[in-house]
Structure formats: C-alpha cells, structure tokens
C-alpha cells in the first residue's frame, strides 16, 4: 500500500474512532497516534518506540 493510501486510511480511522480533525491527525507523530490507538484498544503499556536505526532510515526516506 502506498504512503498516500496508508495515510488516508489512518486519517479516516483517527477521525472516526478518535474524533480527530485532519489538522489534528497531521500534527500528531506516528508514536502519538500509536499510543492513542493502543490506549483505545485497552493496551496498558505502549512499546518503547523506534530505535535510532529506524529513525535514521525514516530520515533518509523523507529528508524534508
């Protein structure tokens, strides 16, 4: 699935499940969205997040 389709799907989920408006979705970080969705599912503890290698990989993919 492309980035656009994935982002559109997640934006829809955030709007439907969380009541987020588009600007709230786009201002959130992936870690924030994950934490809120985990809490909505009743999971107590979120994962530690991404490590430095994953962050560098993402920076390389999206340098802006």
From TrEMBL:
Residues 54-64 have a biased composition (Basic and acidic residues). Residues 42-64 are annotated as: Disordered. InterPro entries: Phage_TAC_6. This is Phage tail assembly chaperone. It comes from Sphingobium vermicomposti. The lineage of its organism: Bacteria, Pseudomonadati, Pseudomonadota, Alphaproteobacteria, Sphingomonadales.
């Amino acid at each position: 699935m492309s980035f656009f389709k994935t982002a559109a799907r997640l934006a829809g989920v955030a709007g439907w499940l969380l009541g987020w408006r588009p600007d709230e979705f786009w201002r959130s970080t992936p870690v924030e969205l994950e934490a809120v969705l985990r809490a909505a599912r009743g999971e107590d503890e979120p994962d530690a997040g991404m490590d430095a290698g994953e962050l560098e990989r993402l920076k390389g993919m999206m340098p802006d």
